[in-house]
Design goal:
About 25% of the residues lie in helices and about 15% in strands. By secondary structure, the protein is an alpha/beta fold.
Length: about 220
């Protein structure tokens, strides 16, 4: 009897894709396409995604740099008292604050007082600084360009102005006057302090020897 070759068996795995599942078998469920992955939460101790910081509203005196304490008696300076309210009569006498300091430390004490004034919100143009001895370094530098340029900055009135006792009579009144008794003759000090008192609208700060200041201004220390 002749041999009939067997038909090759076709396995299901070799067949092409089927439109419908074979009887008794279920079609595999299609897997969803993964979408974008959510941002992983920051790990403990690690910063999250950086975000741009909002703009900072700054005032002319936000960024103030702390100065080292002035050695000696000048370091005892305290905060500047609150000036008289704007509703006070213009003829009211200014408040007086005494800051004990030696002649060598009076200028540093005056600088610290100016910093406190600006930090508390005082406008630079509100402050006049008078020295009884050597010129303040700023005044000495500006005077090197001539008297006209120096006094033009005084007339502008938009910054702290420094003058020595001999030139203070030319300076206009300002809400706050700071006096550094950094030397000079007794007569010069006796002339500068009453003049500074008349130039101060709300507050007079005097940095120097308390006994000398008290004897001239007649105020308690």
């Amino acid at each position: 009897m002749p041999l009939i070759p067997e038909e090759p068996q076709i396995h299901e795995s070799a067949q092409g894709p089927r439109a419908t599942p074979a009887s008794g078998r279920t079609a595999p469920t299609p897997r969803p396409v993964p979408g974008p992955r959510p941002v992983a939460p920051p790990r403990p101790g690690r910063p999250g995604p950086l975000r741009p910081a909002p703009p900072v509203q700054r005032t002319p005196h936000d960024v103030a740099v702390a100065k080292p304490a002035v050695p000696g008696p000048a370091a005892r300076a305290t905060s500047v008292p609150t000036p008289a309210p704007a509703s006070a009569p213009a003829s009211a006498a200014p408040q007086i604050q005494l800051i004990p300091a030696s002649a060598e430390g009076a200028l540093d004490a005056a600088e610290e007082a100016v910093d406190l004034l600006l930090d508390s919100g005082r406008a630079p143009g509100d402050v006049l600084v008078i020295t009884t001895g050597e010129h303040h370094p700023w005044a000495a530098h500006e005077l090197s360009f001539g008297e006209a340029a120096y006094w033009a900055q005084h007339d502008a009135g938009d910054d702290v102005f420094y003058a020595d006792a001999t030139a203070a009579s030319r300076a206009a009144s300002r809400p706050v006057v700071v006096v550094a008794v950094n030397g000079g003759s007794t007569a010069a000090v006796a002339e500068a302090l009453p003049l500074a008192h008349t130039r101060a609208g709300a507050l007079l700060i005097v940095c120097g020897d308390p006994q000398q200041i008290n004897s001239v201004l007649g105020v308690g220390v």
